[in-house]
Structure formats: structure tokens, C-alpha cells
Amino acid sequence: MKTRIEEILRLHSMWTQHDDAGVRADLSNVDLSGANLSGANLTGANLSGAILTGAILDNASLGFADLTDAVLISENLSGANLTGAILIGAKLNGATMIRANLTNANLSTANLTGAILDGAILYDANLTDARLSGAFLVNVDLANAYLFNANLNNAHLTDANLTGAHLAVARLRGAILNGADLTGADLSQANLTGADLRGATLTGAGLYGADLTDIRVNPRTKF
What we know:
There is one protein chain. By secondary structure, this protein is low in regular secondary structure. It has one helix and no strands.
């Protein structure tokens, strides 16, 4: 199995370099549990439905890869390049994705419950209907991200950049947003019950119909 994967990766690397002898990696629905893919070039690869439980993917290049419905529970994706990756319905609960680059990635309906994404870049990412309850998103860049109806209950968003983010109907009950920048964000119909907004900036944010019951603010909170 290891030799076969190595050959697939070799041909895929050639494919990414537009070599006529290269072949795009098709690892859809393949069980890659425990595989060492650290630093691997999987740009544009097909990993839809793949099982990657226990695989080592730190610093892997997964830009524009198709990871639809992939199983990445408790995976280590720290520093991974997932720019433009398709992660629709992916199971990423408990995954560690510190400083991962997910710019323009599609994470709609993905399960990121309890995931650690501190310092990750999710600029313009699609997180519609994603599950992020209890996730760690400290100092994360979610500017212009789509979080419509996302579940962010009890999420840790200290110092997060949420400028221009689309958070309509999002659930943010008990979320920690200390120092977060929500300038121009759309929070219409969002549930912020008990959210901690001390030091947060909400200048120009759309709060029509938002539930602000028992939110915590201080003199540094800007509306």
C-alpha cells in the first residue's frame, strides 16, 4: 500500500507541474488511516470520501483538493495549505489546524466541533451550516467569510478578524469574542445570548433581529 501511495504521489507531483506523464491523484474513498503525508503535495487531488484518521498531514499542500465528506477526525493539519479546497461535509471534529491556510475553502456543512484553528486563515471561506461549537478560533482571519446558520456556540473567537463576515442566523450562544473585530459584519437574526463581547468592535455591524440577551460588554466594546 505504501509503495502504491508513493507512486500515486509521484505521478501527481508531475501532474501539478503539467508534465504529460503525470496523473492527477485519485484517492477517493481510499482508507489512508495512519499514512504519513507530512509535507506531501496533494494540490488538486481527489480525496473525496477518503478516510484519513491518524494520517500525518502537517504542512501538506492540499490547495484546491477535493475533500468532500472526507474523514479527518482529530487530524493534525497545522500549517497545511488548503487554499480553495473543497471540504463540504468533511468530518474535522477535534482536528488541529493551527495556522492552516483555508482561504476561499468551501467548508459548508463541515463538522469542526471542538477543532483548534488558532491563527488559521479563513478569508472568504464558505462555512455555511458548518458546526463549530466549542472550536478554538483565537486570532483567526474570517474576514468576508460566509457563516450563515453556522453553529458557533461556545466557540473561542478572541481577537478574531470577522470584518465583513456573513453571520446571519448564526448561533453564537456563549461565544467568546473578546477583542474580536466585527466591523461591517452581518449578524442579522444571529443568536448571541450570553456572548462575551468585551473589547469587541461592532462598528457598522448589522444587528437587525439579533438576540443580544445577557451579552457581556465593557467600555472598550464599540457599537
